[in-house]
Each structure stands twice: as structure tokens, then as C-alpha cells.
């Protein structure tokens, strides 16, 4: 007897929940990656998120502490929410590296379009190679971590499906044996 039938809303809810957790893990990894890179390159924190927030929501923090706090809140929220897209990608049947590459393209591509649109960064063709490479590295860290985290979280459901198939097969075989008697 099956206690619960899988349905589309169940699958969607699971994908969104696992995606949020994967996005949170990925944002933590990207934040660590940025902290290490900034220590090595002596780069100051970007104010791109604040510029976009100012344009979109009228957010205008005053003082360095408030700017840093708002920037981090937006960074963590935005990164966590992008994990949902990783979950939605999985609903198409893509898993592993192909899903991670698609997610990477979506996240980094959106960044390359959105930031210049809000005058928070120059267009990619006006950036120097080092800046593009560093930005690509951070987004690759994000997408890779999100992909690994999502696939690990989703592994349980794959095993459950394999287990369910095995149970069905065993029940079918026992029924066949009964009829042969």
C-alpha cells in the first residue's frame, strides 16, 4: 500500500525546497570565494547590489555599516532564491553537470545583463579579462555548489524511486509465482 501518491505539486514543492537549500549553500560558498579573492587581490566590496536595489526598490542606506548590512542581506536573499531555478531545472529531467551548466549560464548571464541595465557595472565587453574571469569564477563556484547540494538533496528521492521499483518488481514476481502453482 502506498501512503502517498506523487503529483506535480509535490514534485514542484520538493524542487523549490531543495533549490532554496542548494541556493543557500551556494551563496555561502560564493561568499567565501569572494572573501578569499578580495583578500588576495585587495579588492573592495562591490556596491553593485546597492545600486540595483536603489534603482528597483528605492533602497538608499546611509553610512558604511548600513550599506554593508543591506548589501549582504540582498546578496544572501538573491543567491538563495536563485537556487529555486536549479530545482526547476531538475523538473525538466536534467541532472548533474548539464543542469549545473544551464544554471551557471542563467545566473551569470542574468548578472551580465542586469547589472549594466541598472548602471551598476559596465557591459561585459567593456570589462578587462581579469574582472570577467574573477566574476566567472565566483559564479562557477555558486553554480557548482548549488548543483552538488541539489543533487545530494535529491538523491534520496532517486533512491526511493529505485526502492519503489524494486518493491513493485518483487510483488509482481510473487504474484507470478502464485499463479504458477
Describe this protein with a few key phrases.
mainly alpha, 181 residues, 5 helices, 0% strand
Characterise this structure:
The protein is mainly alpha-helical and 181 residues long. The chain contains 5 helices and no strands. α1 runs antiparallel to α5 (129-180), α3 (64-91) crosses α4 and α4 (96-117) runs antiparallel to α5 (129-180). It is elongated.
Secondary structure tally: strands: 0
Strand percent estimate:
under 5%
Summing up helix and strand content along with how strands pair, one would put the structural category as mainly alpha
Mean of all residue-level pLDDT scores: 88
- Residue windows where pLDDT falls under 50 for at least 5 positions: none
Dominant shape: elongated
Order of helices and strands: HHHHH
- Computed over alpha carbons, the radius of gyration is 22 Å
> Separation of termini?
25 Å
Q: Approximately how much helix is present in the residues? A: over 70%
Largest sheet: none
Helix tally? Answer: 5
Amino acid at each position: 500500500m502506498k501512503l502517498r501518491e506523487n503529483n506535480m505539486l509535490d514534485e514542484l514543492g520538493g524542487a523549490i525546497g531543495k533549490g532554496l537549500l542548494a541556493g543557500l549553500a551556494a551563496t555561502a560558498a560564493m561568499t567565501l570565494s569572494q572573501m578569499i579573492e578580495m583578500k588576495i587581490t585587495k579588492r573592495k566590496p562591490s556596491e553593485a547590489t546597492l545600486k540595483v536595489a536603489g534603482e528597483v526598490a528605492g533602497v538608499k542606506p546611509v553610512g558604511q555599516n548600513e550599506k554593508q548590512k543591506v548589501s549582504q542581506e540582498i546578496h544572501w536573499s538573491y543567491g538563495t532564491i536563485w537556487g529555486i531555478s536549479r530545482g526547476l531545472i531538475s523538473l525538466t529531467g536534467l541532472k548533474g553537470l548539464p543542469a549545473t551548466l544551464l544554471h551557471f549560464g542563467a545566473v551569470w548571464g542574468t548578472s551580465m545583463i542586469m547589472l549594466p541595465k541598472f548602471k551598476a557595472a559596465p557591459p561585459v565587453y567593456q570589462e578587462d579579462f581579469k574582472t570577467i574571469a574573477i566574476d566567472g569564477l565566483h559564479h562557477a563556484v555558486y553554480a557548482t555548489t548549488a548543483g552538488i547540494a541539489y543533487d545530494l538533496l535529491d538523491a534520496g528521492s532517486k533512491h526511493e524511486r529505485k526502492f519503489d521499483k524494486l518493491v513493485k518488481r518483487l510483488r509482481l514476481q510473487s504474484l507470478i509465482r502464485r499463479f504458477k502453482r
